[in-house]
Design a protein that fits this description.
Blueprint (H helix, E strand, L loop, with lengths): L32 H9 L8 E5 L15 E3 L28 H15 L5 E4 L13 H13 L15
Parallel strand pairs: 1-2, 1-3
Length: about 160
């Protein structure tokens, strides 16, 4: 066996389960014996890291009540009203009209990373992009359309009428 440079990390994401919803964090509403056992045999990061989340949250109304120090655009909604500003995503101030949500969230992540580069942080960044309404930037849709035409590829049947500009 070779010597490892650092610890192995297992990051488990359970959709719609909050960090404070497990037994080892003190919650008694749910039985989580396997996760509790993993926590007792490994490391649990509960302090010393700035925790930030940018994007889809959907496991509570306010991530800052669930162990998150910085929250950008994460709340109880599972998706945005639109991918172009004004977004209808709270808490996120709308950008200039037509600004693309995915680009905006990426910019917000970069700002957090730059502001906290001297600190240890954990940044959770789930994009909304795979959720309806399916909306792309017109210049990217044009590239995709040209590729489809060149390759005789069909346009997928999509029940969302906003898929195409």
């Amino acid at each position: 066996m070779s010597e490892q440079a650092g610890p192995n990390v297992l990051h488990i994401v359970v959709d719609d389960l909050g960090v404070m919803d497990v037994g080892f964090m003190g919650d008694t509403r749910y039985q989580t014996p396997n996760i509790d056992r993993l926590a007792s045999q490994g490391m649990v990061f509960t302090e010393g890291y700035l925790v930030a989340q940018v994007g889809k949250w959907h496991i509570g109304k306010d991530p800052t009540t669930q162990g998150v120090a910085i929250n950008v655009a994460g709340g109880h909604n599972g998706g945005p009203g639109t991918y172009f500003s004004p977004y209808q995503v709270e808490p996120l101030e709308n950008g200039p009209r037509g600004e693309y949500l995915t680009d905006r969230l990426t910019t917000e992540v970069i700002k957090i990373m730059e502001a906290h580069k001297e600190e240890k942080f954990f940044l959770y960044f789930p994009f909304y992009t795979v959720h309806t309404p399916i909306m792309g930037k017109p210049e990217l849709i044009a590239i995709l359309d040209a590729w489809r035409k060149k390759n005789n590829a069909p346009i997928p049947s999509e029940p969302n009428p906003q898929y195409r500009p």
